[in-house]
Design a protein that fits this description.
The complex is a heterodimer.
Chain A lengths: L6 H14 L7 H10 L21 H10 L11 H14 L2 H13 L4 E4 L15 E5 L2 E8 L10 E7 L10 E7 L5 E6 L8 E12 L3 E2 L5 H15 L12 H10 L6 H29 L6 H23 L25 H8 L9 H12 L20
Parallel strand pairs in A: 1-4
Antiparallel strand pairs in A: 2-3, 3-7, 4-5, 5-8, 6-7
Helix pairs in contact in A: 1-3, 2-5, 4-5, 4-6, 7-9, 8-9, 9-10, 9-11
Chain B lengths: L7 H17 L2 H8 L7 H10 L18 H13 L6 H15 L2 H8 L5 E3 L15 E3 L2 E10 L6 E5 L4 E6 L4 E4 L9 E10 L1 E5 H37 L1 E2 L2 E2 L4 H30 L3 H27 L10 H11 L6 H11 L6
Parallel strand pairs in B: 1-4
Antiparallel strand pairs in B: 2-3, 3-7, 4-5, 5-8, 6-7, 9-10
Helix pairs in contact in B: 1-4, 4-7, 4-8, 5-6, 5-7, 7-8, 7-9, 7-10, 8-9, 9-10, 9-11
Classes of the chains: A alpha+beta, B alpha+beta.
Chain lengths: ~400, ~350
């Protein structure tokens, strides 16, 4: 490979791919596999693993060419956990054989991934998790319960952290595994939420056998490996450009304009305050985007999720009030298992209830405030009593 | 396209202003000055306005100004806010200058840019853009009347006076009786202007000039408020890392950490809103909405930051000796300046079509 990997070269390679596999007449999966093999899946990944070792920013060039030609994509929203969390972790810690086995079907979406991290007894304090993995010959035998697992009912694989040594302090006795969701010991039950839907699942693991070859990183190094996963979760939040009234404030403003009979002075005052806050948060997100594009570290990112969680909750709550009699109704309580989550979808009542999760999922607002205080402002951490105690001796 | 960042030149300008303020505008000096009959720091103003040429940032080069934009003026205001500097930058180099620009009063603009003269728009500091304001009476070519709450009038050389014929008049300060009013904000003192047959020179139509001047004042005030808030947060964080009670740094208590993290979020938002307002004025696009959004957001944040700073400093924050009261007084006065947050929300209701019942 002698040609320089610039935008022109990537454009050329993308056209070459489409010439060899015309998107209109090629089977979707075949096209995606060919794209992966051509190194055009994620150009910043290494050669042979869907990439070309090119700068990450050049991906946009490939995507634009393919989109213009109407080529199929890998439906990234459906496989977000695989792309955003499992893949970077496998890339960083996986053995060569693991990377070759897992990354291709992960990227094409042929194999969906889910994340088996949180437990009923380990939420904000994830490192306290109690799911046990015990070595048995060439396998590990896993028993425990995981929760808040989106996509578990469609997933083929899971990233899993489990306790391999209860006698060590909690951060040290954890190991990271790739778990086959078709193992007979894996039971997935829908977990119904306050919206009536079951976006998430509970996953019960009973005598699940995981070959040692599916361990990621060293025994006892699971916490370190999981940091890569969790860091990538935070990176994937934010970063898109919103127009004015682009978020949850949009439907509320629309209702206000279209339904003058619902207006009151009190609602008007609250609407204007929230409109201003939504606009300012949008500007902050835009400023963060501009900083990242200019190669400046953007601390604003730590705060975006906090701000949007509160705004989404207050805006949707106001909209329920604004709707008066309709606000007393709900569109549908049927238990469904959606594959995708649409925060601004359905009616105001659904949005109000779903937004309650925004300050819990992906790190509670309380934990995020700690992170801002300690990492951004440099304030001291709370005194800890759990760091040097064996996990088995912790209060629970 | 909106640019919400700071350019390298803007950062260099900030560094120069900050250096000057670090050397010549310490809190003890500001407090001592507020206790004197001359609260304004004239030597500092000379250094900023004349020495660094900052009085003419918004004035075209052919009139002796810098021909810069509101983005640069906003950076200067961030630093002046951070130091609660008692200089008439916002009132003369932004508000009076904008009114003169609207009227095309080139000779007066040249004087302001050269820092040989300080201007003050003779409109109450609390007036929102577009709001009605008292006008002087024009009788036989001379001006009569009393105008109150005029910021920095006591140091101004030329007063820009709206009159009841719809014109904006330039009046030499020596032709008026200017009396200091005891002001909440000691670092931006107000004055009463009494005109008793003062001669004036008609510059142009008052309404559009005053409106433009107040809109620029409101938009760029947000940058000053950002400076105030950022100082309050930074200083409070510093204090809480050092201050120990119960055998721990007070800043390690989660109840306080969460309050400061919340404040940080507000300050980060304020910076984006203030940058957006300055950029919108500079580009002349979306300026009404950007200014109203910035002022609807900035005032409560700056007040909140100063109030948190006072509370979290504990007893020392309540003393005259500690500078936090300067920031509280400025922040609270700023929350009225060029229209309250509520007035700007009302303006937005019209601007973005979210009409009242």
């Amino acid at each position: 490979m002698t040609s320089r990997l610039d935008a022109a070269e990537l454009r050329r390679r993308t056209q070459e791919l489409m010439a060899a596999h015309p998107p209109a007449t090629t089977d979707r999966l075949t096209f995606l596999e060919a794209r992966f093999d051509a190194g055009l899946a994620w150009v910043h990944y290494p050669e042979g693993l869907g990439g070309l070792g090119a700068p990450r920013a050049l991906q946009a060039v490939v995507d634009a060419e393919l989109e213009a030609a109407g080529a199929p994509d890998n439906d990234p929203r459906r496989i977000g956990i695989g792309l955003g969390m499992a893949a970077p972790t496998i890339l960083r810690y996986g053995a060569e054989e693991q990377r070759r086995r897992f990354l291709r079907p992960l990227w094409t979406g042929q194999e969906v991934w889910c994340q088996l991290f949180s437990e009923p007894g380990a939420g904000s304090d994830l490192a306290a998790l109690g799911t046990r993995a015990v070595r048995d010959g060439e396998d590990w035998v896993v028993d425990g319960q995981k929760v808040w697992t989106s996509s578990a009912h469609v997933a083929r694989w899971a990233i899993l952290i489990a306790r391999t040594d209860p006698a060590l302090p909690k951060h040290q006795g954890i190991t990271y595994f790739l778990c086959d969701m078709t193992d007979p010991g894996v039971e997935v039950r829908p977990l119904r939420q306050i919206t009536g839907e079951a976006e998430f699942n509970e996953v019960f693991l009973t005598g699940v056998r995981i070959p040692d070859a599916h361990r990621l990183g060293g025994v006892g190094e699971g916490w370190k490996v999981a940091q890569t996963t969790l860091m990538n979760e935070r990176v994937s939040i934010g970063g898109m450009r919103l127009p004015r009234e682009g978020g949850m404030i949009g439907p509320l403003a629309k209702t206000w304009r279209e339904r003058p009979e619902l207006r009151t002075h009190d609602l008007h005052q609250r609407l204007l305050k929230l409109w201003v806050e939504a606009e300012v948060s949008r500007l902050t997100a835009e400023r963060l985007r501009q900083r990242l594009a200019a190669g400046q570290p953007g601390y604003e990112g730590s705060g975006m999720k906090l701000a949007f969680a509160r705004l989404n909750q207050e805006i949707s709550g106001l909209e329920v009030e604004l709707r008066g009699e309709e606000g007393l109704l709900y569109d549908d309580w049927t238990l469904r298992r959606p594959e995708l989550v649409d925060f601004t979808g359905r009616d105001a009542g659904y949005r109000y209830l779903r937004a309650k999760g925004n300050s819990i999922e992906g790190g509670t607002s309380e934990i995020l405030l700690n992170i801002v205080a300690e990492r951004v402002l440099g304030l001291p951490a709370e005194p800890r009593t759990d760091k040097d105690v064996a996990w088995k001796d912790l209060a629970r | 396209m909106t640019d919400l960042l700071y350019s390298e030149e803007e950062e260099a300008l900030r560094a120069a202003v900050r250096d000057l303020l670090t050397d010549h505008c310490d809190a003890a000096g500001v407090i001592a000055r507020t206790e004197s009959d001359a609260p304004h720091d004239v030597p500092l103003w000379k250094s900023l306005a004349h020495g660094m040429g900052l009085a003419g940032l918004l004035v075209p080069e052919e009139l002796g100004g810098q021909g810069a934009t509101h983005r640069e003026a906003a950076v200067v205001l961030e630093e002046l806010g951070r130091a609660v500097a008692p200089v008439p930058y916002l009132t003369s180099a932004v508000v009076a200058t904008e009114a003169l620009l609207a009227c095309g009063a080139d000779d007066l603009l040249a004087d302001l840019a050269a820092a040989t003269s300080i201007g003050a728009l003779a409109v109450g500091l609390h007036t929102a853009p577009g709001a009605r304001c008292p006008a002087a009476r024009l009788e036989n070519g001379a001006l009569h009347g009393e105008l109150t709450a005029v910021a920095d009038a006591s140091i101004a050389d030329v007063l820009l006076v709206p009159a009841d014929d719809g014109g904006l008049y330039a009046v030499g300060a020596s032709a008026a009786t200017v009396t200091a009013q005891v002001s909440l904000d000691l670092t931006r003192p107000l004055a009463r202007v009494v005109l008793d047959g003062a001669p004036g020179r008609r510059l142009g139509e008052a309404a559009p000039a005053v409106r433009r001047a107040l809109r620029a004042g409101a938009a760029l005030l947000a940058s000053e408020q950002f400076g105030l808030a950022d100082w309050s947060l930074t200083e409070t964080v510093r204090h809480l890392k050092e201050r120990k009670q119960f055998n721990r740094p007070v800043g390690g208590f989660q109840a306080l950490k969460h309050r400061l993290a919340q404040l940080w979020l507000e300050v980060v938002n304020l910076r984006a809103a203030a940058r957006n307002a300055a950029d919108a004025l500079a580009r002349g696009e979306d300026a009404d909405v950007a200014a109203a959004v910035a002022q609807a957001y900035a005032a409560p944040v700056a007040v909140h930051a100063a109030e948190e700073a006072l509370q979290l400093h504990g007893g020392i924050g309540m003393t005259w000796e500690h500078p936090v009261h300067l920031y509280l007084k400025r922040a609270k006065a700023d929350s009225l300046a060029y229209g309250t947050a509520g007035a700007h929300r009302e303006a937005l209701a019209r601007l973005v079509d979210l009409q009242a019942p």
